[in-house]
Amino acid sequence: MGQTIAEKILDDHLVEGELETGEEIGIEIDQVLTQDTTGTFVWLQFEALGMDEVQTELAAQYCDHQTYQFDFKNTDDHRFLRSAAGKYGAYFSRPGNGICHNVHKENFAAPGKTLLGSDSHTPTPGGLGQLAIGAGGIDISVAMGGGAYYIEMPEVVNVRLEGELPEWATAKDIALHLLGELSVKGGVGKIFEYTGPGVENLTVPERTTITNLGTELGATTSIFPTDEKTKEWLSLFGREDEYVDLEPDDDAEYADQITVDLSELEPLIACPSMPDKVVPVREVAGTDVDQVIIGSCTNGAYEDILPGAKMLEGRTTDKKTEMIVAPGSKQASEMLAREGWTAEMMAAGVNFSEATCGACIGIGHVPASDSVSLRTFNRNFEGRSGIENDNVYLCSPEVATAAAIAGEIVDPRDLADELGDLEDPGFEMGDKYGPGMAQDDPDLIAPDEAVDDELIKGPNIGDVPLKDELDAELKGPALLKMEDNITTDHIIPATQDILMYRSNIPKLSEFTLSRVDDTFAQRALDSDGGFLVAGENYGQGSSREHAALCPMYLGIEGVLAQSFARIHKANLFNFGLIPLEIDAADYENIEQGDDIEIVDDVAEAVRSGQEEFTVRVNDDWELTATLDASEREREILANGGKLPHVKKQHDESSGAAPADD
Ligand code: MIC
Ligand code: SF4
Q1: Does residue 153's CB lie within 6 angstroms of at least one atom of ligand 2?
Q2: C-alpha closest to that of 219 among 133, 140, 119
């Protein structure tokens, strides 16, 4: 039987299991990436594993999320990360050099290779045929030490693109269309593989906008075939020799097929506060706009910023609307500056930020209270912009720029009609990227140019907390009951005031679930154990393992939810918290404060493969909860998490690579 592109790459990297949907597979990882806010724990755990050197073909450490260094704690983190990259043999991208996904795409992403990253938007280079997956930090540490990465083999779904985008519709609208159709849960357990005649009309930066937003669908990853456009992209960076042909076999079988006729798309917008609340721009036209931001790993490329620059030529932004551009990489900034576009945009009223994630996670450019912000980003979860009850809309750079000109949400087609001389700027590839940047770029330090060879730990760099093996008895109160689609931004917010404690778990854990209930952390500390209860898709969003690590630190034993997001569920296993699935009726019946007891000998039941667990509530009624876990995940859970598990395996074996099977 023929294979899909995803199956071909997975097959080439398979070290364990079979490519059967739902079966656990182990794959070899060629490249890893990590960033500043998840990276400190990646390296602390790498150190705790006793590793001496990076074992993958390539590892890259980026400093991109908090680059303004408002607090010495951020700067200490960055210095620690540089020292870890130097000591262990990773590339180091300095603060301000750009967002990990953008810089990685430009310098290292290669078709046919596997990439694992401690950031949920790691799938971005799927747009150039890389099989890239986001995961928790400890998974990166283990892969970087030469261990396999394990996942349940996802379904491969074919998204067939037909036709050509009409004027003013963009790649962002393709992704928003899918979000509107499928929802933020629509991709869980799936890989989206794009094919069809519409693909050849899209450039690599457009494709990576789509693969980047696949994360918002909950997908494991998204991937495009390779072609002339991929070759052209790689050659811009002097990397054409890394090109490989990738396409599905004619008789490849997909689990499902979705067809999108590009010619039927129009400018779309995601309304506050979920990326799947998508409507045509015309439906919300006329809403006053206070702030517009172009940037992020979704639409921060040179090619994403240029259309806005062209639309602003000879115009100015509306007096009541602030417009900010935050390029995705310094390379994009430099090109815009060298070509004069930065000056043009500044003259039109635009302010420039350094190349950073920044505003995407509430660091800088926090919207005013009761104001409207239009952003070209990928997430608008409530409060993520840095203020509660925010009104953040997600859209294309063209829709964002149209709003900056008009001072209100407007379909750019209507603005063009009104102004008479506004043309669709189209999509133009940059051609002045520096070849061989990885070697020449002063902001990207290669392992053989390392500045440090020992770890430098400032006072904010803490230890890795460890959990004991799973107990036979698990009981405690339901400390918090939550609804559907609780994001990792609810569990551990990423705003500046909190982000600086990512390397200091005792302090960070004080903020756990504060966005849902600010008494939670103290109540959890005061309680002798306890559980979290949630609806569907618990833990969607980020890969941050802190969303499992902090509840673990506070003594939480497990989560009872209707369903879990993929990366977060893996993180719960990795930190020894039991993720149990419950049905809708039982979810309704459990109240916050109820006493929960798992009746079975939990440690024994987990190890023996038991799937159904009896949960007694208030010593009054019982429900059945399900543990959907592989044998390997059960061992990790029973051993108290992945770090103790791998250390145990490692001590028992003589091999150098940290396996976790
Ligand atoms: C995000 O977009 O939520 C983040 C911030 O990039 C996270 C990583 C983190 O929490 O550090 C992600 O997507 O994984
Ligand atoms: Fe950075 Fe935002 Fe992209 Fe996350 S989604 S990597 S915070 S730009």
Answers
A1: no
A2: 133
For 153-175, write each residue's pLDDT tens digit. Answer: 999 999 999 999 999 999 999 99
Return the CA Rg of the chain.
24
Taken in order of first residue, the domains within the chain and their CATH numbers are 5-264 (3.30.499.10), 268-431 (3.30.499.10), 474-652 (3.20.19.10)
Query: Could you give the 3-state DSSP secondary structure of residue 259?
Result: strand
pLDDT digits (tens, 9 = 90+) for 101-136: 999 999 999 999 999 999 999 999 999 999 999 999
Pick the residue whose CA is nearest to atom 9 on ligand 1.
Answer: 544
Rounded Cα distance, 128 and 374, in Å: 28
Predicted structure pTM score: 0.97
Q: How many angstroms separate the first and last alpha carbons of the chain?
A: 30
Place of tokens 């960033």: 35
User: What residue owns the CA closest to ligand 2's atom 2?
Assistant: 360
Query: Does the beta carbon of 495 lie inside 6 Å of ligand 1?
Result: no
Q: Is the CB of 635 under 6 A from ligand 2?
A: no
Is residue 63 in contact with ligand 2, taking CB distance under 6 Å?
no
| Nearest alpha carbon, ligand 2 atom 1 | 357
Measured distance CA(653)–CA(661) in Å, rounded: 11
Ligand 2 close to Cβ of residue 544 (< 6 A)? no
User: 3-class DSSP state for residue 547?
Assistant: helix
Helices assigned H by DSSP within 199-282: 204-214, 228-236
Q: Is the CB of 361 under 6 A from ligand 2?
A: yes
119 lines ligand 1 (CB under 6 A): yes
The span from the CA of 87 to the CA of 75, in Å, is 18
Find the DSSP H helices in 265-410.
Answer: 296-299, 302-312, 330-338, 341-347, 397-406
Q: Which ligand 2 atom is the nearest neighbour of the CA of 119?
A: 6
Torsion of CA 427, 432, 438, 442, to 10 degrees: -120
- One DSSP character per residue, 380-449 reads -BTTTTSSTT-EEEE--HHHHHHHHHHSB---HHHHHHHHSS-----------PPTTHHHH-TTEE-GGG
**Is the CB of 97 inside a 6 Å radius of any atom of ligand 2?**
no
Under 8 Å between Cβ of 40 and 336:
no
Q: Tell me the pLDDT band of 436, cut-offs 50, 70 and 90.
A: very low
Task: Decide whether any atom of ligand 2 lies within 6 Å of the 378 Cβ.
Answer: yes
Number of CB atoms found within 10 A of residue 606's CB: 23
Taking the CA of 101 as reference, the closest ligand is 2
Distance 525 CA to ligand 2 centre (A): 31
C-alpha of residue 414 to centroid of ligand 2, in Å? 31
